[in-house]
Amino acid sequence: MTAQSELGWAVVGTGQVSRLIASDLALIPGARRFAVCSRDAARAAELSDEFGFERAYDDFNAMLDEPEVDMVYIATPHSTHATLAITALQRGKHVLIEKPIAANAVEAEQIVAAAYDSGRFAMEAMWMRFHPAYRAMLDAIAAGSIGEVRSVRASFGLPFDKPDSERWSAERSSSALLDQGIYPVTLAVDVLGRPGAITATGRIRPDGVDLAEHITLEYDNHRFAQLGASMVEYLEPNASINGTDGWITVPAPFWAAASFETRSGSIPDALSSPEVTSFEKRGFGYVPMLAAVGEAIETGLTQHPTHPLADSLETLGILDLIRHAMTG
Predict the structure, then answer these.
(1) Which domains are assigned to the chain?
(2) pLDDT (tens digit, 9 = 90+) per residue, 253-288?
(3) Given a cut of 90, is residue 162 above it in pLDDT?
(4) Who's near 314: CB < 8 A, 6+ residues apart?
(5) Percent of the chain with pLDDT over 90
């Protein structure tokens, strides 16, 4: 990372993600931790004081009035992403939106339109795509390290919270698919592309909150991806990419892994002689993405080529199709 021109960051929301982002911002040269915003003034003040921000707000519009706010990180419930992002863009702020970019593809398209109209930077915070290990893994696959890729297997299942928690709220568009399944789906799309067919079943509450799903993405020439997500049980949160000459294993949690293991060559070599590729992890893992966003804004970009808005639209469109497949 190189030192950047000072960029005033505001974090909206005070949940766990906001805390991790606030901590990792301290490791970014040129990132000014300016504001924290929450409907709960006490929580905003607490997070602001703990992580060295300059101000705390309980009014989103009042925070946007502050000219020293350049970038708004939106880490609020899924149902609020579109409204907050569009408002910030219309007020001349750059936005980085916690994944998923929106609750559905229609809302995502509205955010993209607002971004184009404003001329400001906008991106979904798909931090996995910025991890050095993840980038190196994709490069190795593209270079033929495991031959032709034939399948992907990835899961993200952790029993989060309790049924009466905010994570299980229909009003907030809570969803295991949106919150957790987005990572396996993104991996499959990065490696295999857009699927030709989708099969999915899941556990869905009467209020529409999906708690778990298992998904098969079908591709031409008998290629496939088998994916799972759950917020009520453990599904081993690692991943593998399998090819004609070997396979790659990404350890748990695969979306934040700092290493991967390649097994290739003859069957004895593949079984007994793995090659491990490792990278140093900085902070909680958000540092590469946060630094890349700052660099992009400094150079005048309104999107980042590693994760452009078109990719967010495509992935959310696939998630919508998966949800439709689950509900029939």
Answers:
(1) 7-128+284-304 (3.40.50.720), 132-278 (3.30.360.10)
(2) 999 999 999 999 999 999 999 999 999 999 999 999
(3) no
(4) 189, 194
(5) 92
If you count DSSP H runs as helices and E runs as strands, how many of each does the chain have, helices first?
11, 14
Q: Which residue has the tokens 């298992």?
A: 214
Report whether 74 contacts 97 (CB < 8 A).
yes
Q: Which amino acid is at 298?
A: E
Side-chain-side CA neighbours of residue 22 (13 Å)? 25
Identify the burial level of 139 via C-beta atoms within 10 angstroms of its C-beta, where 0-12 means exposed, 13-18 middle and 19 or more buried: exposed
Whole-angstrom distance, CA of residue 303 vs CA of residue 126? 13
C-alpha to C-alpha distance for 126 and 97, rounded to whole angstroms: 9
- The amino acid sitting at 103 is A
Considering only CA atoms, which of 129, 147, 125 is closest in space to residue 138? 129
Residue 271: CA count within 13 A, CB half-sphere = 3
d(CA 312, CA 191): 16
pLDDT of 2 > 60? The answer is no
Confidence category of residue 168, pLDDT binned at 50, 70, 90: confident
Q: What are the structure tokens assigned to 229, written together?
A: 């997500």
Name the packing angle between helices 41-50 and 16-25 (round to 10°): 30
β-bridge pairing 259-264 and 275-278: antiparallel
Write phi, then psi, for 135 (nearest 5 degrees).
Answer: -65, -45
Is pLDDT above 90 for 165? no
Catalytic residues: 99
Residue tagged 């390649």 (tokens): 262
The per-residue pLDDT for 89 is 98
